[in-house]
Structure formats: C-alpha cells, structure tokens
Write a structure and sequence with these properties.
Length: about 200
C-alpha cells in the first residue's frame, strides 16, 4: 500500500470550463485545493503527446485491495507506471463505498479498510501521484447526453463525461482504465480509448 507515496508526477492538465463566457464565475466557484489538483501549469513545452490514464473506481479497488486477478498489473500501472494517472472527484465517495462492501463481504477487516482510506487520501493529495479531476456543471450536462445516447449507469456516465471533457481540453491522449465491462463498452461507443492490459 506504500507504493506511490514518493512519486512526484505532474499531470500537466489545466481543467477549465468550455463555456468561456462564464469561465470567471466558474473558476471562482471551483477554486478550492481539492478541485484544483489538476491545475498544475506546464513548466516546459512537450515535443510529443503523452498518455494520461483515467482510472475508474473498479480499477482503484483492484489496485488498493490487490485480491483480484488484475490486482498486480493494475497496481503497477497506477502506482509505478510512467504515465500520469487521474480519477474523477466522484471516486472519493465510490472508493469509500467499495471498501465498505469489501469489509461487509469479509474480504478486508477494519484495519485494512482504514489503511486503504489513509493511503487513498495521501495518494490524492495535492502532491500525490494521483490527480483528481473536478466534477463541474459541464460534467453533468455531458453525462446527461450520455445516458440519452447509450445504455449506461448514472455514475458511469459521470465518470466518462469527466474523462471526455478532460480529453477535449488536453493536448495529451486520455485513455480509460476500467475493469467494468459495461463501462468499457460504453466508453468505446462514446469514442474514448481504453487502456489495454499489458501483454504477459
């Protein structure tokens, strides 16, 4: 659970509203330490596009709990990989819910649950290795479009809306890392690329 505490990876993403007319008001409303974790300005211009990994809660659960078949490589990607990893702000609640279910199912005990929550808090801090993308009004509007377009659950729509907005505003390639088959199918239908499991 310690892996990732010493990583210092800049996400180099400026997450701004698409509606320029109301940009000033939205920035004022959303400028808090938590929602501005991705506002790390570029220190130098990059000569090539890189990959940003947008991990959903299913991937986070596998990485932190490590008791599933995908746990090892997912953990390597999130904590030790060369590419920056980001998540939706929604994961703050979903991850806690996932841990509660794992405890109820007997997969973890109270001590492990507390350790996972503490590690998550450390990893998603301003200087942590996992960037947190804020949920904005645009995220909800895009998610609404998604539920009208494809068969997708509400929270999944919010995750993918956040990922797509990030992709639209970034110079980098944004790929979705998920272990949820339904979310993966919806992501592809909506034009989002998936992160593939490394070849063994």
């Amino acid at each position: 659970m310690e892996g990732g505490g010493d990583l210092q990876r800049s996400t180099d993403v400026t997450y701004e509203s698409e509606q320029q007319a109301t940009q000033s008001n939205k920035e004022t409303r959303h400028q808090t330490p938590h929602t501005l974790r991705l506002r790390k300005q570029r220190r130098e211009r990059r000569s090539r596009r890189r990959m940003i990994i947008f991990a959903d809660t299913s991937a986070l659960g596998s990485a932190y709990l490590g008791d599933e078949a995908h746990g090892r490589w997912i953990s390597d990607v999130i904590f030790d990989g060369p590419d920056p990893v980001v998540i939706s702000e929604l994961a703050d609640v979903e991850f806690a819910s996932l841990l509660v279910r794992a405890k109820s199912d007997g997969r973890i005990n109270a001590k492990v649950m507390a350790e996972c929550l503490a590690a998550y808090k450390e990893h998603t801090a301003d200087d942590g290795p996992i960037g947190v993308v804020p949920i904005t009004h645009d995220s909800f509007s895009r998610a609404q479009q998604f539920v009208l377009q494809v068969s997708i659950r509400t929270l999944d729509a919010l995750h993918l809306a956040t990922a797509q907005l990030l992709a639209n505003l970034s110079d980098d390639n944004v790929v979705v890392l998920t272990l949820d088959h339904r979310q993966a199918v919806a992501a592809q239908v909506l034009g989002l690329a998936l992160y593939d499991e490394p070849a063994k």
